[in-house]
Amino acid sequence: MPIAERRAKAEQRRSLYHEADVVIVGAGILGCAVAVALGNQGRSVILLEKSLREPDRIVGELLQPGGVAALEKLGLRDCLEEIDAVKVFGYDVIYYGEEVRISYPGNAREDGEEPVQKSQTDEMRGTKRKRPEGRSFHHGRFIQRLRQRAMETPNVTVVEAAATELVRCGFTDRIVGVEATVSGREDAFFGDLTIIADGYASKFRKEFRKDLPVAKSKFWGLELIDAKLPMPNHGHVILGDGAPVLLYQIGTHETRALIDIPQNLPSAAVEAGGVKGHLKKVVLPSLPAEVRPSFEAAIDRDRLRSMPNSWLPPTTNKSSGLILLGDAMNMRHPLTGGGMTVAFNDAVLLSELLSPESVPDLADAHAVLKKMRVFHWRRKGLTSVINILAQALYSLFAADDAQLKALQMGCFHYFKLGGNCIDGPVGLLAGIIRRPFVLFYHFFAVALYAMWIYVTSASLAIMPLRLLGSAGVFWKACVVIMPYIFSELQS
């Protein structure tokens, strides 16, 4: 049968009978990417989204270079165009007013790339590859571009529908689709495979997992207008006595400010003036002087919005006929901006594992589940690095005791050493270096350097006490990172 005729029949099945090879719930970052990837492989796809209006969120606005590379592999690189996206070259970390530039490494490479030969000149290296770049943007504009590409993809039908329940086979208990509400009426959509990508507040996750996302703080967002940033085209991480503050430009005139506020923070309590009181009395004075006017104006102008900073370790998908993906399956603190990088790389890997050459029939539950076991472990090279790094860095950057403060100071001074002390950590953060051992190495190098600073910065009289106390600093480093390493080793 000619391709055009097969596509026409598949489209008829989707439109008239609501049947497809794949039903995807959630037309967000991951849902759109997977729909396009599978549709381009010839799979028939129905993509459901409860509202196709442009979303308005305060996170999901910074895409690391590793995410940009995955977007290109998916053929979606042009979705970064025509949305006033801003180039990002790295980070500016400001520690009690002192700053250090952390640029994306020019010498790091993704697995599988050819290394630059030592015999090549600097000029040759420069022409062969340029320094990696990220992008920051308005989340809603980017989502709408992805949805547009999904709608334009042959074999994909996008439907505005709110999924309400999963449909199970009465004999095998296999998931065969979802019930949904379409324009106020009940309907159903059926597929050989159902993919749930309905985000951090997933309504279906609890049916397949007993553990719940853990959130110990929230990001509160403001949109600054024409803010003067200390280092344009860089994300800014501001560290001081309180939790971290992030600043990054998301448009020609707009800059996002994200303020981390832990649960039950006294300075943000209602009797202390609430969140606005905390922003004015605590956060505003800690910001670089050039940022304060636009930040103060945003406090007075903006409605305050928040997002929980959630942690949810990944698990292997084991349900017949169903796959949980994206934030429904795995979350990390958004401090490092790694969520979209994970999502796009997951879409690349999933489309490779479930390609028609690998799994001819998606109704073959055994073959799909076997591939999902492979998916769980193969994604670890990237996702375990980003997951662990996000949680560990947040613990250091939101330091609330003496040992964590020592580690925080050690981390900043480690960056000041330059060279590989910057290239390694930021290569991990950017999704370029995908080796968990490199993360382990740099984290404990920071711990040892923090111990050295902690001891040698003391007077001779108290140095012996500091030497004993340094063991507590190392112990705290183990307490910070080991639970997250252990969680990534689970199946």
Automatic annotation (TrEMBL):
PROSITE patterns: PROKAR_LIPOPROTEIN (PS51257)
Subcellular location as annotated: Endoplasmic reticulum membrane; Microsome membrane
Region Disordered, residue ranges: 106-134
Record GO cellular component, one term: endoplasmic reticulum membrane
Domain Squalene epoxidase: 192-468
Entry keyword Lipid metabolism: yes
Molecular function terms, GO-annotated: flavin adenine dinucleotide binding; squalene monooxygenase activity
Catalytic EC class: oxidoreductase
Keyword match Nucleotide-binding: no
UniProt GO BP: ergosterol biosynthetic process
Catalytic activity annotation: squalene + reduced [NADPH--hemoprotein reductase] + O2 = (S)-2,3-epoxysqualene + oxidized [NADPH--hemoprotein reductase] + H2O + H(+)
Keywords: Endoplasmic reticulum, FAD, Flavoprotein, Lipid biosynthesis, Lipid metabolism, Membrane, Microsome, Oxidoreductase, Steroid biosynthesis, Steroid metabolism, Transmembrane, Transmembrane helix
Cofactor(s) of this protein: FAD
Pfam families on file: SE
Enzyme Commission code(s) on record: 1.14.14.17
Family, as annotated: Belongs to the squalene monooxygenase family.
The protein, known as: Squalene monooxygenase
